[in-house]
Design goal:
Layout lengths: L2 H19 L5 H19 L17 H14 L5 H15 L27 H22 L13
The structure holds zinc ion (ZN).
Protein name: Metal-dependent hydrolase
Keywords: Hydrolase, Membrane, Transmembrane, Transmembrane helix
InterPro entries: YdjM-like
């Protein structure tokens, strides 16, 4: 997926996650949207740094790197929600575009789904919107269905 797709995905997820965590639709919702949209969008841009440093879709497109972003806020109380951007970047690359990613790098086998469209295709935005909506449904199910609110998201101060 291209940068436009990852930013669109990150911003829309920010709005969606804001409503999942603070569904009232009031000032608290707006505050939560801002609080989560920025780190999620930043995180969504992180994996493609490996186009300049390392090997693209390998060095920063793998589960150990995602694990570091999930663990960091718990250990250092900082960078909350950035991991969501990293995770959804992987999902968008794997599900929304033709080439897979090396999830278990340094093992270089790339994994993807046969659902992707070319990154320059006219359907790219549509695919991004569909995947973003699906991610928010899964997120809602996790937060409300499994009662996972608080881990590893860490509740925002009221
Ligand atoms: Zn990527």
């Amino acid at each position: 997926m291209n940068k436009r797709g990852h930013v669109l995905n990150g911003l829309l997820l920010g709005v969606g996650v804001g409503f999942i965590l603070a569904p009232a639709g009031d000032v608290g919702t707006l505050r939560t949207i801002v609080a989560v949209a920025v780190p999620i969008t930043l995180g969504a841009l992180v994996p493609d740094i490996d186009t300049e440093f390392g090997r693209h879709r390998k060095t920063l497109h793998n589960l150990p790197v995602l694990g570091l972003f999930i663990a960091f806020p718990a250990v250092f109380s900082n960078l909350h929600y950035v991991w969501i951007g990293v995770l959804t970047h992987y999902v968008l690359d794997m599900v929304g575009s033709k080439r897979g990613i090396a999830l278990f790098y340094p093992y270089t086998q790339e994994y993807g789904f046969p659902t992707g469209v070319a990154t320059k295709s006219e359907y790219t935005n549509l695919v991004t919107l569909f995947i973003t909506g699906s991610e928010l449904l899964v997120g809602s199910a996790i937060v409300y269905g499994l009662g996972w609110y608080g881990w590893p998201l860490t509740p925002l101060p009221a």
